[in-house]
Known about the structure:
By secondary structure, this protein is of the alpha/beta class. The protein has helices at about 30-35, 45-55, 65-75, 90-105, 170-180, 195-210, 220-225, 235-245, 285-295, 300-315, 330-340; strands at about 10-15, 20-25, 40-45, 60-65, 80-85, 85-90, 110-115, 120-125, 130-135, 155-160, 185-190, 215, 250-255, 260-265, 265-270. It has a domain at about 65-115 and about 140-190 and about 275-340: 3-Layer(aba) Sandwich (UDP-N-acetylmuramoyl-L-alanine:D-glutamate ligase), CATH 3.40.1190.20.
Amino acid sequence: MSIPSSAPQIDLIGVGAPIMDLVASVPESFLAQAGGEKGGMVMVDANEIARLVALLPTPPSITPGGSAANTTFNANRLGLRTAFVGKLGSDELAATYMQRFSSAGVDPSRFKQADLPNARCLILTTPDAQRTMRTCLGAVMTLSPDEISPADFAGARHAHIEGYVLFNQALAEKILASARAAGCTIGLSLASFEVVAAARDWLLSQLKQGLALVLANEDEARTLFPDLPAKNPDDYAAHARRLASFGGTAAITLGKDGAWLAHGNELHRVAPVVVTDAIDTNGAGDAWAAGFLSAWLRDQPLLICGKIASLLGAQTVRHYGPIIPDAAWPAVAAQAKSFLQ
């Protein structure tokens, strides 16, 4: 059955950085070669990433990454009609990125492109499942407000925007204004407490204008609302209520302690899915968001949205890289579908 021209033709459009992830399992001792603190993310140039890759004990696996991109890709696998707005480079990694998204069924027509290397992130995963990242943004850094317009969001129902774009507030302003002009609802994933600290006043102003969905972890929630208690998981119920008081839906994720969800007078605690064989936390939050959105955009109850979100996040940490492998995906997708009402 064809979709009426007046109906949205895309359920979810992701907005963010299309970064190619180079994922490597390394011994603890390798981190001395990378410098910086374990578990952190440091911006480097392409030469530094090439140096580190040459020192790896085995070649890295290559998988499309980027926060909103991971969420969009997984949401597409869960049956949503998706597209993505972001800027690719013009090298082999960019071509691989485009091909992977296109073959999965994500609408690739809204990617921008620059005659530069594609963004890449070397993710060094140690035996304790901790990830240390070295990132070169390449073409992503050249995305300008002038390249964004309501046409990028035409026919889309909901725009999912990664918080990292808030480091460029002129770009963020244009993205949100364009999405609103096209009739999209807006969702923000706050990305990191550094993002919130740098853009707190702007975030609060956007909340007052209206955001349909905000996803935050406990660090980000504490930074956004420093006056609220934050000593134990139960305290984050107040953060979820405060965030939802602006009129949208709030999701506060707490890692192994589950999550709080709030909307209007609703408040729910989501139990975590316990995982005993975690090997890599990369992409778990992005997968959580995809699971949530796949149910939320189908108008499922909040607890069902949280249950599917927890499943996706938990299954992601059982594999290297931000994307659940194709071989493991059918069982995960079937379980997620079984939760839908």
